[in-house]
From TrEMBL:
Residues 228-272 form the Flagellar basal-body/hook protein C-terminal domain. NCBIfam families: FlgEFG_subfam. It comes from Lysinibacillus piscis. InterPro entries: Flag_bb_rod_N, Flagellar_basal_body_rod_CS, Flagellar_FlgE/F/G, Flg_bb/hook_C_dom, FlgE/F/G-like, LlgE_F_G-like_D1. The keyword Signal does not apply. Transmembrane segments: none annotated. Residues 115-178 form the Flagellar hook protein FlgE/F/G-like D1 domain. This is Flagellar hook-basal body complex protein FlhO.
Amino acid sequence: MFKGFYTVATGMIAQQRRTELLTNNLSNANTPGFKADQSTIRSFPDMLMSSVGKTNAQAKQQIGAQYMNQVGALNTGIYMQETLPNYGQGQIYETDATTDMALIDGTLPQNEDGVAGSIFFRLAHPNGGEAYTRNGNFTLDGQGYLVNGQGLYVLSDAGQRIQLPNDDFRLDESGAIYVENQQVARVGVSFAENPNILRKEDNGLLRLEDGGNLPTAYGANGVTFGLRQKFLENSNVDSGRTMTDLMTAYRAFEANQKVLQAYDRSMEKAVNEIGKV
């Protein structure tokens, strides 16, 4: 009976965490550059139950002799194994703001594990090192530096801050920024061979676990991409599917809850009625 409590409880915890993940995806369905999280749910290893008894051997041979009769497997519940972002390209839409930029995926080679690489804008992290994002909703601060919505500096391919006289500039597909037909910088773009090594932070930022920096995407072997000015990349969250998955997770949680209530009533009857006998 108590094993049943634990099994049901693990199911409720897993579905609750999945609901929280899907809710976060849905709330960011219109956040530029947001990458939807995906979860995998697995079961704990089953326990093989066996009964132990005396053998059918002659009496003189039964002393200390026992046999094990296999009863069957006992499920021990489920758990959310991991969450991984989906780094697929989101829909590109026009904004008409000259400081808005969108990364356009071209050829992004897969690593030996079959995981496709991904490209990101380079930002200067306030704690040192670099942060990465797909959200190209940039602006110019009071000193003319190109910054993101949280005020982090956008870095050039040389790792320097990009300072512009005003927002009257041109960005070509190769990432070069021109002011009065003179190239002044090239937008920094990094390539992650395995983007799953990146850790999500607040406001759509990504960082390496060790605080290191990704290599540049320019000239990377087999990597092709482009940039578009006055465009942004939308979230890659599929709102319709997310709503369906959210309802499925909620109903699974509710079903586990009803089983838990049934176990609770059985235990109450065992204590209050059978216990009196």
